Predict the structure of Selenoprotein BthD.
Amino acid sequence: MPPRRKRTAAAKSTERKATEVHAELCKLAPEQNFQLVLNESGKPRRGSFEIAIAKEKDGKQVLVWSGLPKGPPRKDKFPDVKSILDDVLKALK
């Protein structure tokens, strides 16, 4: 029987995906100053991915995208950056 995958691998893949989404948003909207904050409110739920926007560091966050109700398959739990860019920019206005 093959060994079970460790949960840390899933967490690292989510971190990598978050970094990719952040980099793509920065490319698509270079006039904005996006800052990536991972798991600000504690340990994330396994297999979840959400994007929230705050205009200021201490400002109220607006949930732009959530993968919690999506999937399976797992790929549906992660956003396509081009499709959420309008929602991100609208939340910043």
In short: The longest helix spans residues 7-28. The chain has two helices and two strands.
